[in-house]
Amino acid sequence: MADSLAATAHLTPSLARNDLVAQQQHPKRACAVTLFAIAIILFSVGLTLGSIGLAAPHNALPLWLKSTVTALGRNGCIGVIVGGYVTSTALAKLAGPIHSKELLQKEERVNPKTRFDRMFETATRVPRVILSTALDIAFLPVAAILLLIACCKSNYDSSNPKKNKIAILQIHGSGFCEIEWVASWPWLSKEAYGSVFTLNLDGLASNEHHMGVDDYARGKIRDKICEIKQLTGQNEVILMGHSMGGLVAAYYAEHCAEEDGTTVNHVISIATPWHGAPLLNCKDENEKPKRYTQMTENNDFLTALAKTALESDTTRKRTYYSIGSTTDFMVPGASSILTESQNNNRIYSWLGHYGIIAYPGTWIKIRSWLNPIYQA
User: Fold this and answer.
1) Which range, 31-35, 52-56, 357-361, is most confident?
2) How far apart are the first and last CA of the chain?
3) Which of 57, 116, 249, 277 is the most buried (most CB within 10 A)?
4) Domain identity same for 140 and 17
5) The model's pTM
6) Cα(311)–Cα(317) distance, rounded to whole angstroms?
7) Judgement on whether residues 195 and 303 belong to the same structural domain of the protein
């Protein structure tokens, strides 16, 4: 009993320090978000004034107003450039590094940049983030229409599965359904590729609170792959996942495939939080569904899964491919990288979490990975 109390007393200061750090981080992130909101407002005002100054019909303006409008245009454009640089730099300083120094160095090795590239990215951070956020928001009406379509059709699998080609299984992310892959289907319908299969992990736009990455892999994914193997006569499957779906794919490949007699030689992840989703740090631990807890930075489950997947890639047991974006607020670039292979990674600098799966360049890159697999 005394030993137990002593151990508790020894741990208490450590736990208190952790709580203090957590309390300090939340105000810091709140200040960063506030500053970012101010940056967006200033950028928008500058852009509006600049547009007025440049686009206004000067000949139709009164003489006393011409100089004012011209000044607005010039100062507005300067404000966009200078304001974007200052606010984005201040935001980065205030928020601190989202990831560890090791992860950022890993991103640099995967996606090397010149000094000019880094300066340009810093100067344009705010407009690029605005663009990526705007693109994601623009997809909301499209997502609503897709959900209505999904209500009317429950199966998007090929009606005539190819029996001589390795099938592809697409696994969607948290909070949506299989129809999020609709933009990819024209790109993957090439005769040289295998049949594409999808599934809903839960409902059309929800996930069960108690379900985690491992539960989906051992449940729905295992059943779906068993069905695919029966339809195609092939024991090999290529797994492709968006966001949480990439982790589900990896978990099945590393912990279930061998048990099921399934061969998974290739796993493609898109905006997958291999090293956690920083946005989840702002959510109270007691309110997080199991899957969110597993995707939080430094979570033991996530760390172990990423380590196992990386070991498989290093030993060439299977190959992992990753696509991410530095302006993805949910899964920033460094978090979406598993391996350090430049050939097997693609990092964008202007796409958001959902825009990345609709962008044609994503599928052109994925096809460049699939072509050698199917030609072998």
Assistant:
1) 357-361
2) 64
3) 249
4) no
5) 0.77
6) 8
7) yes
